[in-house]
Design goal:
Its EC number is 2.3.1.61. The protein is 29% helix and 28% strand. By secondary structure, it is an alpha+beta fold.
Length: 504
């Protein structure tokens, strides 16, 4: 049987890579998850593991070739003849553990597009505990979501390889489940002895060939570079960081000396004893980094308007019971805003576009991001092709994704690919704010609290339910005229919802 080795997903907006190094040649024996080659994109270095054990067959893409996503790299011939050596090495720990049943590896599940590592946040089981198939073993935290890891088989948790707080790579091994009720004791006893030999102290791991070349060019040794790859493997980008730090250190040292001891304002001993220091979660770190990157990259500007919600509220009150009875979901304001934004984006397409290098990419569809607050931070689930959906479908999608977001069940795919975002700060009582762009998007609409305010209507002062709207946009591709036009179209559609039916 022949298994194809293909280019993995390289990350959002990355469509091709260069084959940097092959670690195997045709005829070599390979084990499952053994690294076959290394690809380099314009952003990261990607390792390609073997998806099956066997013999390395034909190498289709040579070193230096440019390949696209899912392109064929090589083939692996599965069979009895070539795999014994890798399998024997992989199986060595099993006899030492006292045997008594098959061992099943607990691996890091697929983390999502462009996500290569996670942090082990919580283990629900400890070594020696019995586990049932699909029972939750641990929870991983990535830059965007929490991922629960179920038991792939029933048995006893024999060894935990990745402790709480450890960073693990995609497809890395987390633990070992021993089959049978009596198999736990020996593995648990052997675990401390086995761990050092498995890890090899972190220095027995082969550095990436591209990293070796870079170290030779910069005159650095491997002990001067902190590896970010699997098992501490030094990657090319690690060498670049170390070289940059080394070159900057002499120049910056004199100037930095006075400020280095005081990274934050002095705190009295009494105040310090009442403080609590908590490490930021990976999600919160990513939110902080992305928001600051957005401010640093985009020429962000915000324009404001206000909308009289009288017509929408009257229409909603008139049909909400009938709508709930027919569609099984409540009629809220978000579907009106989503439809109004989709309508306005057709007229002002640059708000639904993004910058890619020196190109503007116009999206002939609307994947609407709906920002949602959760106990762990802000997430933005995406409703795909919202411009093709009716009110009921939009409300159902918002309700379902909102519930999944609060429960931490959103997948990576559900939070990627958005072209425009709506953020509703009004649910928390916000009267006015300037939302920050969700890159690479070029527009985000901020909704706010509906408040009765005196308005002049037909020469008379009357109380009307008013809401401030804020559109933050990337001024690099959206001009002021386009931004104002977008907000006015949203305002018109909400103040007279019949315009949506007439496509006006």
């Amino acid at each position: 049987m022949t298994t194809e080795v293909r280019v993995p997903t390289l990350g959002e907006s990355v469509t091709e890579a260069t084959v940097a190094t092959w670690f195997k040649k045709p005829g070599d024996a390979v084990a499952v998850d053994e690294m076959l080659c290394e690809l380099e994109t314009d952003k990261v270095t990607v390792e390609v593991p073997a998806t099956a054990a066997g013999v390395m067959g034909e190498i289709v893409a040579k070193e230096g070739d440019t390949v696209g996503v899912d392109a064929l790299l090589a083939t692996i011939t599965e069979g009895e003849g070539a795999a014994p050596a890798p399998k024997a090495e992989a199986a060595d720990p099993a006899p030492a553990s006292g045997g008594g049943g098959e061992s099943v590896d607990v691996m890091v599940p697929t983390l999502g597009e462009s996500v290569t590592e996670a942090t082990v946040s919580t283990w629900f089981k400890k070594v020696g505990d019995s586990v049932a198939q699909d029972e939750m073993l641990c929870e991983l935290e990535t830059d965007k979501v929490s991922v629960e890891v179920p038991a792939p088989a029933a048995g006893t948790l024999g060894e935990i390889l990745a402790k709480e707080g450890d960073t693990v790579q995609a497809d890395g091994k987390l633990a070992v489940i021993s089959g049978g009720s009596g198999a736990a004791a020996a593995p648990a006893a052997d675990a401390p002895a086995a761990a050092p030999s498995a890890s090899g102290g972190g220095k027995d791991v082969e550095d990436a060939p591209s990293a070796k070349k870079a170290m030779a060019e910069t005159g650095l040794s491997s002990d001067q570079v902190e590896g970010s790859g699997r098992d501490g493997r030094v990657m090319k980008e690690d060498v670049a960081k170390a070289a940059a730090a080394a070159s900057a250190a002499p120049a910056s040292a004199p100037a930095a000396a006075p400020t280095a001891p005081a990274p934050r304002a002095p705190v009295s001993a009494d105040d310090a004893s009442r403080e609590e220091r908590v490490k930021m979660t990976r999600l919160r770190q990513t939110i902080a980094r992305r928001l600051k990157d957005s401010q640093n990259t985009a020429a962000m500007l915000t324009t404001y308007n206000e909308v009289d919600m009288t017509a929408v509220m009257a229409l909603r009150n008139e049909y909400k019971e009938e709508f709930l009875k027919k569609h099984g979901v409540k009629l809220g304001f978000m579907s009106f805003f989503t439809k109004a934004c989709c309508h306005a984006l057709k007229e002002v397409p640059e708000v639904n576009a993004e910058i890619d290098g020196t190109d503007i990419v116009y999206k002939n569809f609307v994947h609407m991001g709906i920002a949602a607050g959760t106990p762990t931070g802000l997430v933005v689930p995406v409703i795909r092709d919202a411009d093709q959906m009716g009110f009921a479908a939009i409300e159902k999608a918002i309700a379902e994704k909102g519930a999944r977001a609060r429960d931490g069940k959103l997948s990576m795919a559900e939070m990627q690919g958005g072209t425009f975002t709506i953020s509703n700060g009004g649910v928390y009582g916000s009267l006015m704010s300037s939302p920050i762009l969700n890159p690479p998007q070029s527009g985000i609409l901020g909704m706010h609290k509906i408040q009765q305010r005196p308005m002049v209507v037909n020469g008379e002062i009357v109380a009307r339910p008013m809401m401030y709207l804020a559109l933050s946009y990337d001024h690099r591709i959206v001009d002021g005229k386009g931004a104002v036009t977008f907000l006015v179209r949203v305002k018109d559609a909400l103040e007279d919802p019949r315009r949506l039916l007439m496509d006006l």
